[in-house]
Amino acid sequence: MQIWHLISVRLVGIIFSICFCLAISSRAQTVPASFGGPLVAHHTQAKLLLSADTAKPGDTILVGVDLKMEPGWHTYWKNPGEAGQATEIKWELPPGVTAGAIEWPLPEKLPPAEVTTYGYENEVMLLVPLTLETNLSAGTLNLAAKVSWLECKEVCIPAGADVQAALVVGSETKTSADAALIESWEKKVPFTLTGSATDHAWWEAPASGDTRTLVIGHLTPKPTNTITFDFIKYDSADFFPEASEHYEIQGPTEITSAFASDIRLRKVVKKFDGDWPTQILGVLVLQHGNWRNGNEARLTVADEPPADAGASEKLFAPKPPAPALPLPSPILWQMLLYAFIGGLILNIMPCVLPVIALKILGFVGEARSDPGRVRKLGLIYALGVLVSFLALAEIVIGVKSAGHHAGWGMQFGNPVFIVCLITLVTLVALNLFGVFEVVPGGRALNAAGELASKPGAGGAFFNGVLATALATPCTAPFLSIALGFAFSQPPATIVLIFLTVGLGLSAPYVVLSWNPAWLKLLPKPGAWMEKFKIAMGFPMLATVVWLFSVASGSYGKNVLWLGVFLVIVAFAAWIYGEFVQRGRKHRIVATIITLMVLAGGYVFALEKELDWREAMPMADTTGSLKESVNGIDWQRWSPEAVAQARAEGHPVIVDFTADWCLTCQVNKKTSIEIPSVRKKLKEINAVALLGDYTHFPDSITSELNRYNRAGVPLVLVYPKKPDAEPIVLPEVLTPGIVLDALDRAVQ
Amino acid sequence: MKKTLALFTALTLASAVMAVEVGKPAPDFTGTDITGKTVKLSDYKGKIVVIESYNSDCPYCHNQYATGATQDLQKELAAKGVVWLMVNSVNPKNFSHRSPGQAQKEWADLKIAATAWIDDSSGAIGHLYEMKTTPHTFVVDKDGTLVYDGAMDNKPDPSHDPRTARNYVREAVNDLLAGKPVEVSQTKPYGCAVHYAD
Prior knowledge:
With about 750 residues, chain A is α+β, with helices and mostly antiparallel strands. Helix content of chain A is about 40%, strand content about 25%.
């Protein structure tokens, strides 16, 4: 069982981390293509990287001037803002090579608030296209430039460096090892947006003295139908202007509307001389969660808002509530796609894996029957999943409206839920072992009439419910992004996303049941099925053991009584199966005995000894949470602990985990609590903090929400640089991902 | 969002009410100079006053003083009866903060020829004048009206020779003395951000 979990998780991990690894390893490369190597100049290192080792005459190749700033230091954008100075590149190029203008990646607005500046922290690569003339002769060219910049922290220092690199002119173009890195920076350069939305700028009022208020709008023409789709809001929007000698678009931005289809920003323009500008250039910056995008904007300034932008009072009037079934915006579409893919992947996450056994069995059993019936069962399974997800969505909405934090898998922090689930899974295992049979056609589906009357329908529905119940402690790649998004959304969106996850979870089975021809590939039903069924009981037992260990977190040593209760339940199930279902005589007596055993077990073990509805208070241990003598020296997580460790100059790794989170446990075994990571942590003198989410503390929920996650696992690596943003690791880890992140943390 | 809104409103209000605006009365202030003397802008009514935000650790300021260009300008204008007030708004925790003792030494070492160096480590005067950068200069005429707000000169570069640049402060003072309207009354200041207290 454990092995199966590991294999499946590793497989998913490998597939989904390939891209991530590529991205990291290309970032982590420090071997410059240029000769001479990096030059240290004050607090910034500059080097020249080429996207090609060999180019042919007539080519245009992209080169990058890479600036690496020490922690806390920054350099400036092409418009430094109210202070600072833009970085300059003076090329010294051989004849026949010409340099284009610098392409600047999207900068950050840098503190302090009083003086707005635009620039880069940690690292930036300024990109320049170099064009080779067509009549260039073959040979090696030395490309050189003098780079000068102003670097500031508490003080500002003008600094510079000479950089150079060699380019071979030949008969073909060969990309270099740095091409991927250069390309990754090219993606950060603002681009001209294409789409239905257009950018506008207009004066809100006549000038007052030498200042005047400007409105910048990113507006989508109103569709002709009555459905509006502006219920998606950006977290943040801003406009970074280009510099002008004659006027200045000041730093503060007031967002009057952040709806995706109707973004409006208010900026104050201060004029130095001449007329009020009629055209402004800059970058419209849109942000949603981790997604941040810069759109090149060239705006003609009008005296009035555009005709279809609505009356000016609309600017300040509250938005009408979104209709119940809104047409989703691109972001919601993307989130729905993530939700669907996440749901699909959930099928092979360790939590749901045992249920697969049940489903495989179901399909084999049904493979030869009437196709219509197989389809119905597929749909009923999907219905079971969807109804469960709807219930989950309702719970989340309820918890949220009560003002509490909601999170994926939160019911696993509730011991009553655990006891019910563990009892249920024990019964499923016993059922698979053949101890007793489930008479299908449960009463829950009576309303569904005909469907319910046929054997198998209730079972299919139950499978759907069970799959969902077991799925909740897992998050999967993609799923966490979608859920993190959903948890911050209005109820309609929560329901929509949850149902989409359900669709993803059930899709493979619906598709299979729709194509009976594929089902025929499965082995013919026969005596082997009985053996297979029994074999599949063991994964269920393993699930019981896991749930048992989760329960021990709530009950401590008393969890023994939960075990006793399960044994009594098993005994009752055996009496029921052997003497009620298969018995010939005294079936009523046997039924009474079954009920008495169950009641006795409940009263004695659960109520009296375990006191199951009252979890033991959490022992608030302090000090090391080390798991073994040589293990990582975990300390308890708190925001203060992070701040303190960073203030002392340590890189920090934070593992948000929970006993019930199987993905977390697998991550720990395969990629965190391993010798190479232990050694690396010691080497870089890192502080390891463990955030235990088993009992759902609010402090961790809000931390998860900050990273747009709805649940664990969440592993963060805070770089040594005290004000750098933490590196957020993916849900499924490999040792490489963890080690790479730790390497980056001390760069 | 709320914070941004508040900040925005505050800034809008500040510029509307107190208004450091060319053509309007320059806001009055009282400060203490590095010798402990009280300096009040309105005491200089009847004289032209130059106000300069200053931090010699900033390469842009440093360049103006290391070349001696600003000291020469200070002497040149002092001879014409012009008052020159330096305002240092660097917060006390910053590396570039100067105690009165350090400031007096710097004054002597650099042969500064201004009227006074005001210790504004609270940032009160800097914020009142919306000083963005070091250097950021202002010229106030004899009636107390602000006539120039902006850069010291037209070369936003920490390594130029300031003597070859077009000095807007000198031009504004000379325009006033000649009884002419000030030709360039506003420019974009350049330099390092003022290191205000949080």
